[in-house]
Amino acid sequence: MSTLELFDAVRARLAGAPREALGEVVVPRRILGVARAPRVERRGGAWHLGVLLLTDDAVLATGDIVRARQEARRGYTAESQRQRAELAAAARRGGFAEGEIVHVGWRMLQPDVLDTGGESGPLVAVEGMPRVRWSAAGGLMPLEAYLAERVALLLDPPPGA
Length: 161
Prior knowledge:
Layout: H1 3-13, E1 20-26, E2 39-49, E3 52-54, E4 59-61, E5 64-67, H2 79-93, E6 101-104, E7 107-108, E8 119-120, E9 123-126, E10 129-133, E11 140-142, H3 143-155
Parallel strand pairs: 1-6
Antiparallel strand pairs: 1-2, 2-3, 3-4, 4-7, 5-6, 8-9, 9-10, 10-11
């Protein structure tokens, strides 16, 4: 089975499963020299499968994941917290519902290159077998097993998840 056929089979299994929003940061033009706040615009939806996002016709690598929320003044102990809060506020400004999960900073992958021994983002072919790097420091896992595990978790999440 080719890598593209594997992803098509996963799409068929996930047909009725919930999707999460994809967004893209847009910086509006200045008006009379005044900068306007960036916003996150909707770019579709995808099934979230760990380090991968699966759409109807593409495979993406995850980026930042935030919940849209109103901007509020807060004290932050780390600059990274401030940046995530700004991204969440930009998502709310872009029209996402309060608390809606939004994936930003994702990137397109080319899963078909695995069949020729190539690599695309977290997807890599090792000895002719497609694998996925499931964390930055983690090892490689067979792609088929990884997708089976993630689909099972998405379709039947553990209690309290």
